[in-house]
Every structure is written in structure tokens, then in C-alpha cells.
């Protein structure tokens, strides 16, 4: 589990190596297109700040008055999923390894079907604002606070890096001013998120999604034309062994196989689309539960298109450079810079199109960061402030929510500066984001699927899951650093959105050394576990430890459960057992046909919505 970026922003100029290669720089049309992206995003925020209810209530600011339709919600889900690092990483992955990564699309089916029919009905019918409110309803306030603090820790570290990293790559290849890009993006994102609330975030995501599609399509069309057409691109990829076949190797230490991508990827998708606050908040902003469910169905084909675009960009790159990559020639330092070099190379005689791709790249960054700001403001307000200030007026709560969004925007800029000082430790920042999502998924699954799990089991399970995640992640990092220099693998920027975004996840990979290495055993094999299995492994740890501790400390009784907090998956799976046995297993509670008799004073929810599961 590693990162995509090195500490030095420098790159060898092509003119220093090959005299006939033109130095790559942005032109005036490129800067104009980039500026238009920032202006348009700001205008959307101002529009929603001055229209409608003018963001005067927390419901409007944090949940868009629960008035959003299916299409903008689905495109916003997609934009949060498609980060700038993913735009740079997927083509690089395909160029280096081939199309095995494409099988990740198999995981999207269950990765969206389960949230649509399990997580969304539970969250939506409870009428939550923060996903972590669920943890108090199901367990207690301590579990809620632990989940909230874990999420804040995850996002604060991540959001600065996701802003700084693509700016660093852009600066290295084009000379684009590094801190000018970071400040412009950070301030614009903070402005429209603070002024326009979630509604502005969702509609800017829609606009930025269109820009992302346009930028990637432009690169593919022009690049394929210059390579002789898509038929020629495919032929060169076939000849270069970049079209991968189905790999059914069950070894979990193998980086990419059908099982790691198709099965391990499901858990990554669940961590992102099932329980991540940035995505849950979008579901809850929908007008109806049906529209929230439909947004998952709409985003499925869109995700497949995004994956295809990234893979096709990688194949077009291979058709252009073959085995002689800009990285091997020394034109760039890392693989993420290679994608930008390719774009500048393809568009060198087409002014304005490099600016379009940069707008595409930073649209990915904007959508991810704005989702982080809004979701962080939401959980801080709903989980850490409101429960302790019940007398706070709506006007003060709304103003404080806006202040929190602004504060997190400034924290993001600070973290971007910290990221610039971290050097190679940047990989630890990306790793932390990836390590935390799995245990949070396990915590929600423990509460939602196992009625006898109690609060003690939830706390111990979460701590055990986080400990396991950091042990494996740090052990992997240390073991990689301990490899002798000749065997060091090349750091690769291969990513896909991960948990939370957000938007909401970054998956990073390693290119294995050409030198053959013995198969790891024991603890070393655990350190070499494919990054795609991390979420499954860590979430399973939480569930197993949580269940064991719950059984040892006294399992919860059905009468003690808050109605609507348990999805009756065991009751459905064990339908063949007599009801008296299923009652002993505490697995017959319906999802939404009971109301809570006594609302908890610290929670706003009093009743569950009487709807039929779709």
C-alpha cells in the first residue's frame, strides 16, 4: 500500500535529453480554459447561496433540503468516486501492466447493488444527517464518537494530499505554478462549498463530471487518431501483450487477479458507496428512498464508462510509446507524471486542449475535496457539537456549519503545505486513507447484520480492525523500504477511488521488481497481501472480534434493539428454520415495521419511515 508521488517536483526537460523535443508549456488558451473551470464552479456556488432558501437552515446547507433528484445525485456520486489521482493512475496502470485492471468493473455490480438494497433503506428510513448517528442508535454514543473521529482523521490527512499531489505532477511536467494551482483550487472549492452548501457541491460535481468526460475523450480521440485509429491501437496492445486474459490465480498476495479485482474490489466499493459519509450524505439528500436507490443504478453504467476511458487512455499511451516510455527515457520521474507528459505530447499543436485536460484533472480534485469539506462539516456539527448543545438555534447551527466548512477548507490548504514537506512519506498519507475505510465498513456491518453484537464488541472490534490495518499497512511499507536498492520496485500512481470519495478512496499499487523474488511466507505473506484485499481483511477482523467479544460480554437482546437499525439478512438467509429458533438467534426483526417507543434524547430521530423494501 503505497503512494503515487515523490517529494521532488523537478523533472528532466526533454530539451535537456533530446534537442529536437520541444519544451512543454501551457499557452494562453490553456490558462483561459483552466480559469473558466474555476469561475464556473464559483458561480454555481454563488447561485445557490443567493437562491432558494439561501442556505438558512442546516437541512438545506448539509442535505440540500432532501430535494435532489436521481440524475444529479448519481453524477455527484460518480464525481466523488473519480479523483484526480485516479485520472492520472488508471492509464498508467494499463500502460504498465495491461488490461487486467479492467476486471475491476466486475466488482461494481455487487458493490452498488448491496448499498442500494441494504444500506440505503436503513439510512434513509432512519432520517439521518450523519451516517455516524446510526452508530449511536444501534450501539451507544461512545461508538458514534469513535466512528466520527476515525472518519475525520482519515479525511483531514487525505484531502490536503489529494489537492497537492496532482498539482505537483502538473508542475513537474508543464512548469504550471505549483502553489498558484493549489491556492486557486483550494480557495475556490472552499468558497463555493461554504456559500452554496451541499446543493452547490452536487451541481458543481455535475458540471465537473462533464468536464472530466470531455477531457478524457479528447485525449483518447486525438491520441488514437495520431496512432492510426483504434484498430491500430488494439493491434499494438495485442502485440505488446497488454491485452490481459482472465487470471484465476487464487493467491491473495498476487496484486491483480480476477478474484482480487472482482471479489476484493466489492469490499472496497462497499466501503465507499455503502458507509462513507460523503456518499451517504448524497443518498440522504434525495427526495425519496426510491430516487436514492435509483442513483446507485444510474451510477453503475457511468462507472463502467469511466473505467473504460481510463483503460483506453492507457492503451493509446502504449500505442504511442510502446516499450520506450517517457519514464524510461528520463523525461519524467514518476508514472503519474507520464500521463501528463503524454497529454502535453498529444496536444502540443492544439492550443487549449491541454488546458481542457488540466480542467478535467482538477475537476476530479475539486469534486473530491468539496465532498470532504461538506461531509466533515456535517459529521462535526451533527456528531460532536449538536448532541452537546441541544439548545442551539437553527440560525446559529447553520452559521456554525458554514464556519466549519470554511475552517476545513483552510485546514486543507495547511495539509497541502504539510504534504509538500512530507517527501516520500506521502505514501503513508494515502495508505492511512486506505487503511481506515475497511474497519469502518466492518463496524457498520457488525451493527447492521448481527443483532446480538453489543457496544463493547463494537468498540473492541473497531480498535482491533484499526490495529490490524495499521500493522499490515506499516509492515508492508517497512518491508518495502528494507528491500536492497537494486530490487526496489518502481512506485506507481495506479489508483481508483476508494473509500470515501470520496468520492471518496484511493487505491495505490506497486510495480513488482523484474528480479524474481521468493514467495513470501508467514507474516511476510500478510504484508504482501494484495491491496485489494485490505478492506475485506480489515472489515472481517472487526466483525469477528466484535462478535466474539459481544458473546463473551453478553449479547444484545432483540427487545433492546432500536427498531430499524438491523437489516434482517440472517432472517432471510435462515428462512428454513422454525420461527422460535430464529427468534433465539435474534434475526426476525423487520427493517421498518416497528417504531421506537422512546426516542433517545441525543438523537433527532423519533420514528422510522413506514416503507416497503424495494
UniProtKB/TrEMBL annotation:
Question: Superkingdom, according to UniProt?
Answer: Eukaryota
List the keywords (alphabetical).
Biotin, Cell membrane, Glycoprotein, Ion transport, Membrane, Sodium, Sodium transport, Symport, Transmembrane, Transmembrane helix, Transport
Q: Which residues cross the membrane?
A: 31-50, 70-89, 101-124, 145-166, 178-198, 210-228, 256-275, 296-319, 356-379, 399-419, 425-450, 457-478, 531-552
User: Does the entry feature the keyword Lipid biosynthesis, yes or no?
Assistant: no
For membrane topology, the record states: Multi-pass membrane protein
Keyword Ion transport found: yes
GO terms under cellular component: apical plasma membrane
Reaction catalysed?
iodide(out) + 2 Na(+)(out) = iodide(in) + 2 Na(+)(in); biotin(out) + 2 Na(+)(out) = biotin(in) + 2 Na(+)(in); (R)-lipoate(out) + 2 Na(+)(out) = (R)-lipoate(in) + 2 Na(+)(in); (R)-pantothenate(out) + 2 Na(+)(out) = (R)-pantothenate(in) + 2 Na(+)(in)
Which Pfam families does this UniProt record tie to the protein? Answer: SSF
Please provide the Gene Ontology terms (biological process) for this protein. inorganic ion transmembrane transport; pantothenate transmembrane transport; sodium ion transport
Primary location group: membrane
Its localization reads:
Apical cell membrane
InterPro entries membership: Na/Glc_symporter_sf (IPR038377), Na/solute_symporter (IPR001734), Na/solute_symporter_CS (IPR018212), Sodium:Solute_Symporter_SSF (IPR051163)
Q: Which PANTHER family match?
A: SODIUM-COUPLED MONOCARBOXYLATE TRANSPORTER (PTHR42985), SODIUM-DEPENDENT MULTIVITAMIN TRANSPORTER (PTHR42985:SF2)
Question: Main role?
Answer: Sodium-dependent multivitamin transporter that mediates the electrogenic transport of pantothenate, biotin, lipoate and iodide. Functions as a Na(+)-coupled substrate symporter where the stoichiometry of Na(+):substrate is 2:1, creating an electrochemical Na(+) gradient used as driving force for substrate uptake. Required for biotin and pantothenate uptake in the intestine across the brush border membrane. Plays a role in the maintenance of intestinal mucosa integrity, by providing the gut mucosa with biotin.
Per UniProt, subunit arrangement is: Interacts with PDZD11.
Q: Name it.
A: Sodium-dependent multivitamin transporter
**Species for this entry:** Oncorhynchus tshawytscha
Record gene name: slc5a6a
